[in-house]
Each structure stands twice: as C-alpha cells, then as structure tokens.
C-alpha cells in the first residue's frame, strides 16, 4: 500500500474541465492497485489573481513542492496581461522545480482529421529542454516607449544543462527506436548551437546503438510536415521545442490530444504533468474540450511514479476510444461527445 500526494492545479478556461476527466481516469486506473492518492487542489490562476492579486505565494509554492507530483490543467486568460500567469506560475514551477526534461510525445491515431494528406506512422517524442534557453528571463528593456527602445532576451545554455537533457534523450532513444535528432540552428546561433552539437557528439559515444541526426529548426518544420515518420526522439532547446510541439500537435490532428510531462528525472522535485494546449478561452465552460491530452498526461504521470501497469490501462483505454472514433467517422456517423462523456467512455474501458 502506497500513498501518493498529488497537487492539482486546475487553472483557467478549459483547465478545470479537462483535469476533472484526468482525475477520473487516474482513479479508475488505480482502483484495486493498493495505491491511494491524496489530492490537494490549489486555487491558482486568473480568478485568484483577480480576487487577490496573487500569482503563486511562496508558502503555496513550498506546499506544492512537498507533493509527489503535480497535475496542471492550463493557465492564462485574456482578462489579465499576457505573461503574468505564464511566467509567474507555469514557468516559475518548471524552473524552480528543475523540470529540465519537457517530455512531449506525438502519435498519430488512425482516422483523426489531419492537415497531412498522408500522415503515415507518426510516433515520436520531443525532449524539450525546460529550464534554460530564451525562457530563462535573461534580458531587459532600455529606453522603453522611445524610438530608441532596445529589448533583449538572451538565451542561456550551460554545459551542465545541455548535457543532462541530451543524456536523457539518448537514454529514451534506447528504449524506443534508437534514433535521435538534434534540432537547433548552429548555422546562425553559433555559440549555443555548437555547444549542443558538441554535447550530442560526446554523449553519443556512450550510446553506440543510437543513430544521431541533425536538423536546423527551419528544416525540421518542413520534415515534420513532409516526412514525420523519420523522427523517433527529437532533442532541442526550450523555444524550438515549444514551437515544434505545437506543430506536432497540429499534424497529429489536434492539440486536444497532445500530452506532456515537465520532468525532474532525478526525483529531487515533483514533476508536473499537463496537456500541451492552453486554457482555450474560446471554448471554455462549454464541455467542448477534448480531455484526451490530459488523460494521456495522467498516464505519463503514473509511468513516472513507477505505476507502469496502471499507466498502461489508461493507454489501452485511450487507444480503444480513438479506434471507436475512427470507426464512427469512417461509417459517416462521427461521435459527438462532451468533455465528460469522453472521460466516462475512457473510464468505462479502464
Ligand atoms: P490554446 O491551446 O489555449 O488554444 C488554441 C486553439 O486550440 C483554440 O482554438 C482552442 O479552442 C483549441 N484547443 C485547445 N485545447 C483544446 C482541447 N483540449 N480540445 C479542443 N480544442 C482545444 O492556445 P492560445 O489560445 O494561444 O492560449 C490561450 C491561453 O492559454 C493564453 O493565455 C496562453 O498563454 C495560455 N497557454 C497556457 C498553457 C499552459 O498552461 N500550459 C499552454 C499554452 C497556452
Ligand atoms: C507550453 C506553453 C508555455 C510555453 C507558455 C504558456 C509559457 O506554450 O506549455 O507550450 O511556452 O512553454
Ligand atoms: Mn507552447
């Protein structure tokens, strides 16, 4: 018998709707497992900010960090200035909890509408660095609101930070198809780009079974559309990874399916699991959001916590639900379901 302390941050917009379904799937998968989850819900996000002006008070951060894992819906809302919650809450957690691996798997499910004429066998994982790069907040503005304003964001890339995420990506490749692609832009970003390139070459010597490849990020966006099956594991920096994973979501038929984990592999801090999508203010409160991204994020979370069989139950149920969708669409009677109806269908299969 094991107890897991889970911090839950439903957040804004569709966040609470999809998190509810993720928790339903989690509880179904853990039934009869001997594992008990103690959930603590944190009221953070736009409402809290409007009520109190608070984003993430120190004591709440401390409390969150004592949990075993975090499940987050989404944060951000057009009613407050862009960046307050994104930087002050989401990125604050990713940085302070040292989530240096931002794990974003992409898989194409048959029958899902995709802009690609021939999606083929898409099944890759982007390992996005999560604690450095252009997200580090290193920069500033001088002469603001004058014609001479200069705004800088300086990308931080440390040997330590690059090596640990590259090593993780190689390890992941050995559990998959042994193919690793580094994506960067070392023809222009000659400082950071070459640090990444040299690191992949050096660490790669420890993983002789893994074939490595390199693409400039602009070319990578082409291949994601023209030949996505060429990818197995992609390792890249924070901003390139952000952009590539939205594109990955689009080619696999929608951001409502894309799961992610912000992982601290060392286990020194709790890892955080969340759908790749945001708060989707345009469909919030209407039970229109697809909860599969969140449910699959819960599967990643259970795997991370060592509950591999329980994670598998969720994955099998999601795969079956996606099959049912494909069959219905092919038969000309596509399923029309609310957020919670999709969650219920997955739970029934678990
Ligand atoms: P978004 O992902 O919220 O929405 C983009 C489009 O995708 C919208 O049309 C939306 O309806 C659709 N969509 C998103 N999730 C869906 C789902 N589960 N099912 C069906 N359709 C879905 O991106 P945005 O509009 O750029 O951002 C909205 C807010 O969310 C912003 O404040 C942004 O900063 C924030 N955001 C937060 C996170 C996060 O918390 N991790 C991630 C991305 C964006
Ligand atoms: C994501 C989001 C975030 C990011 C934003 C909201 C800070 O786009 O999770 O992909 O850029 O990482
Ligand atoms: Mn993003």
TrEMBL record:
Where is the protein situated, by its record's location annotation?
Answer: Cytoplasm
Cofactor-binding details, from the entry: Binds 1 Mg(2+) or Mn(2+) ion per subunit.
An example GO CC term for this entry is: cytoplasm
Check the record and name the PROSITE patterns matching this protein: IDH_IMDH
Annotated binding of Mg(2+), by residue: 218, 242, 246
Q: Which reaction does it catalyse?
A: (2R,3S)-3-isopropylmalate + NAD(+) = 4-methyl-2-oxopentanoate + CO2 + NADH
Q: Where does NAD(+) bind?
A: 278-290
Q: Does the keyword Metal-binding apply?
A: yes
Give residue ranges for domain Isopropylmalate dehydrogenase-like: 5-346
Q: Give the record's GO biological process terms.
A: L-leucine biosynthetic process
Supply the SUPFAM superfamilies for this chain: Isocitrate/Isopropylmalate dehydrogenase-like
The keyword RNA-binding belongs to this UniProt entry's keyword annotation? no
Pathway linked to the protein: Amino-acid biosynthesis; L-leucine biosynthesis; L-leucine from 3-methyl-2-oxobutanoate: step 3/4
A molecular function (GO) held by this record is: magnesium ion binding
Q: Which domain of life is it from?
A: Bacteria
Cofactor(s) listed: Mg(2+); Mn(2+)
Q: Which Pfam families match?
A: Iso_dh
Q: Which NCBIfam families match?
A: PRK03437.1
Quaternary data? Homodimer.
Q: What does this protein do?
A: Catalyzes the oxidation of 3-carboxy-2-hydroxy-4-methylpentanoate (3-isopropylmalate) to 3-carboxy-4-methyl-2-oxopentanoate. The product decarboxylates to 4-methyl-2 oxopentanoate.
As for family, the record states: Belongs to the isocitrate and isopropylmalate dehydrogenases family. LeuB type 2 subfamily.
Name of this protein: 3-isopropylmalate dehydrogenase
Gene source species: Flaviflexus ciconiae
Q: Which gene encodes it?
A: leuB
């Amino acid at each position: 018998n094991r107890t897991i302390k889970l911090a839950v941050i439903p957040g804004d917009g569709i966040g609470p709707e999809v998190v509810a379904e993720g928790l339903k799937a989690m509880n179904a998968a853990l039934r009869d497992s001997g594992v008990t989850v103690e959930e603590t819900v944190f009221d953070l996000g736009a409402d809290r900010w409007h009520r109190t002006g608070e984003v993430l008070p120190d004591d709440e951060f401390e409390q969150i960090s004592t949990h075993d894992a975090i499940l987050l819906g989404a944060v951000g809302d057009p009613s407050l200035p862009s960046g307050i919650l994104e930087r002050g809450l989401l990125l604050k957690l990713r940085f302070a909890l040292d989530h240096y691996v931002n794990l974003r798997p992409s898989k194409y499910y048959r029958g899902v509408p995709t802009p690609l004429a021939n999606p083929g066998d898409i099944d890759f994982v982007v390992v996005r660095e999560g604690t450095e790069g252009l997200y580090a907040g290193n920069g500033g503005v001088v002469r603001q609101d004058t014609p001479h304003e200069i705004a800088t964001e300086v990308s931080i890339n440390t040997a330590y930070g690059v090596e640990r995420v590259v090593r993780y990506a190689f390890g992941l490749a050995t559990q998959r198809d042994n193919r690793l692609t580094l994506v960067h832009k070392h023809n222009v970003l000659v400082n950071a780009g070459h640090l990444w390139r040299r690191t992949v070459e050096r660490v790669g010597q420890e993983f002789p079974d893994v074939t490595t490849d390199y693409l400039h990020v602009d070319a990578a966006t082409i291949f994601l559309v023209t030949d996505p099956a060429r990818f197995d594991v992609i390792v890249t920096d924070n901003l390139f990874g952000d952009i590539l994973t939205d594109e990955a979501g689009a080619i696999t038929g929608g951001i409502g399916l894309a799961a992610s984990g912000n992982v601290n592999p060392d286990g020194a801090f709790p890892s955080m699991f969340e759908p790749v999508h945001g708060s989707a203010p345009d469909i919030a409160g209407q039970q229109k959001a697809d909860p599969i991204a969140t449910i699959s994020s819960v599967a990643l979370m259970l795997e991370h916590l060592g509950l591999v069989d329980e994670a598998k139950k969720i994955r099998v149920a999601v795969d079956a639900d996606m099959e049912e969708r494909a069959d219905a669409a092919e038969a000309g009677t596509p399923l029309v379901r609310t957020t919670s109806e999709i969650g219920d269908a997955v739970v029934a299969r678990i």
